[in-house]
Automatic annotation (TrEMBL):
PANTHER family: DNA-INVERTASE FROM LAMBDOID PROPHAGE (PTHR30461), SERINE RECOMBINASE PINE-RELATED (PTHR30461:SF2)
SMART domains for the chain: Resolvase
Identification of the protein by name: Recombinase family protein
Alphabetical UniProt keywords: DNA recombination, DNA-binding
Region annotation (Disordered) ranges: 445-474
Domain Recombinase: 176-313
Gene3D superfamilies (alphabetical): Putative Large Serine Recombinase, Chain B, Domain 2, Resolvase, N-terminal catalytic domain
Length: 537
């Protein structure tokens, strides 16, 4: 029997995860789904490319519906992992470099954070060795192209939004409570699209609820929470199909859509980030094409009531007494509280902080009738003062300006701007690797001292005189309040007084002082032991 020699073929060495290098995987799908590459496809491509280079993805960071134009994303968590010296991952893998970000400044700063700890950003589909000069140049060009595409798309969307606003339409379209939305494109039933005129038409049932909400709010009968509760009880949901909440009602009513307006960011406002701007002064209202459900007077009254209620303490929104929330202790600045007797509620005002033993000073206790009487006397004197100002019997001082101070103020402001710009240039140079950390820190300290010194000198300069505030614009309010003092409701009286009075200070011996809203602002009070947390407005 012939026997053949056996040939033993050794088994191929398997690569286990322990022998691979762990990395962090990052995937992002834009808000507008550009390129339509799903998260699953990105993860599959990254994992295959990493395995070919002896890596495995130890942890995935996913950003869904996230724009690359800023870094307010979960990708910051991936950067923190790379910077963590207790974690072994030093590489951040993505499908393309553009997934990391499309903002030039943000990419430079966060890429520097990765590389400063020996990390690296790697693209699974773009074979670039960023450790070489050519590789860094190539990566920079790819990131620049991504930023260019983002800017181009942003400009197109901006032009589209501006065109829609000129046509009197909301920038992003969508449903609005109280209206039926007819979008421009609708399915034609044959797999295609039909085009129609985009418009909004009033829905009577929802519009009636909106009108009632505005009227009740103007009268002070309700708030946003109560409106939301009422709409939910009646079975009306918001445009997303969810129950109403007070924040949603507030945003809906403040938007001005029911008044035939569009709430938009003012293109003239000096703002570097219009999309994320939260400064109310940078927004304005534009006329829209849809039919309004409330008239202009109701909208103006709503805006006035919003201003009044914004500056009114919560307990004073449904007042029992006309000065609710306005009376303060003149010794410590804390809110006054009502003191009641066995026979009469709200008999007097006293210092609330002293009553709770939070402060120690002389007793402050003044009868409510005395305080309200002094306020009425103040209104009578105020009407006479306004009449004298209008008649020219009282001369209002004109503001004085010192030319030397104006020149010095402008010089110091320029110095602050130069120092701030120098600090920003130093930071950019450091993030790009042009200067060392020690050079950056010393440069920053030098310009920071320079800026702080200029700011100190600027703060010491006397503030420029402005047009002195005057009670004259409140003349009609004062006359109307005095004429209806005995007949007006407590709530209406409290609202009207809130437009004239910042606070009423009470002190021992029935000393009552009325501080009007046009009085100079008070210096801020420092908090300390035994002092209540109150800062006069």
């Amino acid at each position: 029997m012939n026997t053949r020699p056996r040939v033993i073929i050794p088994a191929a060495q398997s690569v286990v995860a322990a022998e691979l290098i762990p990395v962090i995987g990052y995937a992002r799908v834009s808000t507008w789904r550009e390129e339509m590459i799903s998260i699953d496809i990105q993860k599959s491509v990254v994992e295959d490319a990493a395995a070919r280079r002896g890596r495995y993805v130890a942890e995935w960071i996913i950003d869904e519906d996230a724009t690359g134009r800023n870094f307010k994303r979960k990708v910051m968590r991936a950067i923190e992992i790379v910077e963590d010296h207790e974690r072994p991952e030093r590489e951040l893998w993505s499908w393309k470099f553009s997934r990391f970000g499309r903002n030039r400044h943000g990419v430079a700063i966060n890429l520097a954070r990765i590389e400063n700890v020996g990390g690296e950003l790697i693209s699974a589909t773009e074979d670039v060795d960023a450790k070489t000069a050519v590789g860094r140049f190539t990566r920079g060009m790819l990131l620049e192209v991504a930023a260019f595409e983002s800017d181009r798309a942003g400009e197109q969307w901006k032009e589209t939004h501006e065109l829609r606003r000129r046509l009197g339409l909301p920038a992003a379209g969508g449903r609005r409570f109280g209206y039926r939305w007819y979008p421009r494109r609708i399915p034609d039933g044959r797999g295609g699209w039909a085009v129609q005129e985009e418009r909004y038409e009033v829905l009577p049932n929802e519009a009636e609820l909106a009108v009632d909400a505005f009227q009740d709010y103007i009268k002070g009968k309700t708030g946003f929470g109560k409106i939301a509760e009422r709409w939910n009880d009646l079975g009306f949901l918001n445009t997303r199909g969810a129950p109403w909440q007070d924040q949603g009602v507030r945003g809906y009513m403040d938007s001005g859509f029911t008044a035939g307006l569009l709430y938009v960011h003012n293109p003239e406002a000096p703002c570097g980030d219009p999309a994320g701007c939260k400064n109310a002064e940078h927004y304005t209202y534009l006329a829209a094409e849809h039919e309004s459900v409330i008239n202009g007077d109701e909208w103006d009254n709503y805006r006035d009531m919003r201003t009044v209620r914004r500056n009114t303490p919560r307990r004073a929104l449904s007042p029992v007494y006309p000065l609710a929330g306005l009376v303060r202790c003149g010794l410590c600045g804390s809110a006054a509280m009502n003191h009641q007797t066995r026979r009469e509620r709200g008999y007097a005002y006293r210092c609330g902080a002293r009553a709770r033993r939070k402060v120690q000073h002389d007793a402050v206790w003044v009868r409510r009738t005395v305080v309200e009487g002094r306020v009425l006397e103040w209104l009578v004197d105020l009407r006479k003062e306004i009449d004298d100002i209008v008649a020219g019997k009282i001369a209002v001082p004109k503001p004085r300006r010192e030319p030397d101070f104006d020149k010095k103020r402008k010089k110091l402001q320029r110095e602050i701007e130069k120092a701030t710009a120098a600090m920003q240039r130093a930071f950019e140079a450091y993030t790009l690797g042009d200067v060392s950390r020690d050079v950056y820190l010393s440069t920053r300290a030098k310009h920071e001292d320079r800026r702080n010194e200029a700011q100190r000198q600027l703060d010491e300069l006397p503030s420029p005189d402005k047009e002195p505030p005057s009670p004259v614009p409140h003349r009609e309010t004062v006359i109307g309040l005095l004429a209806e003092w005995d007949t007006i409701s407590v709530h209406s009286k409290r609202v009207t007084l809130g437009r004239l009075i910042r606070r009423v200070e009470i002190r021992p011996d029935d000393d009552v002082t009325v501080v009007p809203v046009w009085a100079p602002a008070d210096p801020p009070l420092k908090k300390g032991p035994g002092r209540p947390s109150y800062r006069p407005e």
